[in-house]
Amino acid sequence: QNMNIQVEDIRLRAILATYRKRVPVTEGYVEVKDGGTWKQICDEHWTMKNSRVVCGMFGFPSERKYNAKVYKMFASRRKQHYWPYSMDCSGNEAHVSGCKLGNQAGADAEKNATCAHGMPAVVSCVPGRAFAPGGHGGFRKAFRQEQPLVRLKGGANTGEGRVEVLKNGEWGTVCDDNWNLQAASVVCRELGFGSAKEAIAGARLGQGMGPIHLNEIDCTGFEKSLTDCKFNTESQGCNHEEDAAVRCNVPAMGFQNQLRLSGGRNPYEGRVEVLAERNGTLRWGTVCSEGWSTVEAMVVCRQLGLGFASHAFQETWYWHGDVSADSVVMSGVKCSGTEMSLAHCRHDGAHVSCPRGGGRFGAGVSCSETAPDLVLNAELVEQTAYLEDRPMFMLQCALEENCLASSAANTSLTSGYRRLLRFSSQIHNNGQSDFRPKNGRHAWVWHDCHR
Description:
By secondary structure, the chain is an alpha+beta fold. The chain folds into 3 domains: 9-127, SRCR-like domain (Mac-2 Binding Protein), CATH 3.10.250; 138-248, SRCR-like domain (Mac-2 Binding Protein), CATH 3.10.250.10; 255-368, SRCR-like domain (Mac-2 Binding Protein, Roll). The chain is built from 7 helices and 24 strands. The longest helix has 10 residues, at 48-57.
């Protein structure tokens, strides 16, 4: 084996017309960039294990067989340029660079190789449910699965997050001892993504809460679920500073080309402009800001790969976007927050309705790579909750601040009582940045009770 063989780049090129029109591309020639030229790989020694690795790299959980006859007919009509090396994968590699690469039999590395008894290697991949072509409703369920045993939390982008496992009805985290690409890839494939791009240790995508279910995980990379791997249920010596996370390979959907931020001071902010079809032509335009909120802004930031939404703006007069894109082309946008693209949120379609118009009232966003993630400690609330009867004269301030039920206005201040639910609360910030109230201290309204 030649250990000096480098894979510059690799792609899956759709050959048949059926697949050229589809997004994402799930079937075609495997081509390797060699000296600036794209070359095919001879399929004489190609295996389904090789296909599995290639599919994983392009964001697909598994491989499948294809119609070889059609490709043989196609290959016989065209001259091919073959890569002079062979590839031998075990099937659990996260990237082809981890496979054994060697000289193809009879090939001269300086010249084009031949493939006398074969044709260009073809790979056909099975997309995860959220990425299946034609199933637009599936895009809304990128992070949802029926009865999942594993989920990703705290990630800004699709296919990344802290790994959490469901055990005995309770979600818990995974300790990063022995955490590697094989284990991370099992998680990614289980959730409908490809192999793992990165196995992240040290709670770099935020700390979780509750129990640590799994420790010292040992996977072969072929398991259907993380819970099928060998692991230690004892979490002694582990804490949430060691929570494991993943960043998965995700199919190229082209979502980033359908939307842009314009006029901002930096690439992370600006007026939202979308590419929409109007009267048979594609044109850029603004999004109506009526009802625009942080939820919609989160989808925009995710679609552009810019992280989390820190602000959603309903006025953007201070950001001069593209003048030719001032017209509103999208209105009535309402997202659930899990969509991968703004186009897959509910909206008015071609029947745009925006009384305030675009221009200065176009929707805008400000994105951030990190964000706070506030979580209430519900267990503490349950443990400390109790009922208490308090006389009205001790609740004067609460009454003035409208913190009591409306019926309290008819209760005697000298002899009346109110029954209160008392409890302690604790808020954890599991995110990667500090939490700060939206308004600065200068904008806070203080009342006499707090002076």
